[in-house]
Design a protein that fits this description.
281 residues; mainly alpha; MetI-like fold; 12 helices; transmembrane helix; Bact_Polyamine_Transport; transport; cell inner membrane; Putrescine transport system permease protein
Amino acid sequence: MSQLPVVRSYWRYVILFIGFTFLYAPMLFLVIYSFNSSKLVTVWAGWSVEWYFELFKDKELHQAIGRSLTIAFTAAIVAVILGLMAAIVLVRMGKFKGENGFAFMITAPLVMPDVITGLSLLLLFVALGELIGFPAQRGMLTIWLAHVTFCTAYVAVVISARLREMDKSIEEAALDLGASPLKVFFTITLPMILPALLAGFMLAFTLSLDDVVISGFVSGPGSTTLPMWIFSSVKLGVSPKINALASIILLVVGIAGFIAWWLIAKKEKQNWKDLQRSKHA
């Protein structure tokens, strides 16, 4: 039986280099052109940091950043709590009537187009406003509710995968020794799934901070988020100021992603050591 030819090692590096170039070369050019002194992003006129100083003078931009960070942070926290509850129901509560329907409703926002989700939420908020008077108007609250809605689905999937991989023998041993289910959850289960919680938080924070379609449907006057501000600015022509802002975002996201990766890797390594120690005890 003939075997498939093995790709030589240097070809692997070439393919890897092409892939990373395709992904990260546009970001590299964006960072370089953020230091362009020209007002035209396509014309290089020398090195300058004036566009970074221009960012600090734009009060409208500061307000948009504040709104986006506030919505993203609070939406991610609530999404982690709701996603954790949904994951526990799906994985640990056993079979129950309507389980398939519940699982479908949790995962539906993952495959639903943003346009459909945004339009549905807009119609919901309008109907609720006419029926019970809440929300009275669209703004930061409606954007936050919309972000919690679709972020919860992503967090639930991440935590569910982690719960299914867990070794339940440790929890069962703690229950056999007399620990209450609540104590087992807070002292054993929660620390073991902490990397998944951090990953879910980072994912929800990023999705919320990045969203522009759904936010555009459910926003109102005076509730412009950072992606909406960038989108409206780009329609009038790309400014080097946008490049400077994107470069700062790349730097912050890169640092935050590295810290989150380090914490998750450290926790996973500690969990693996604890598991090995418990098996040999």
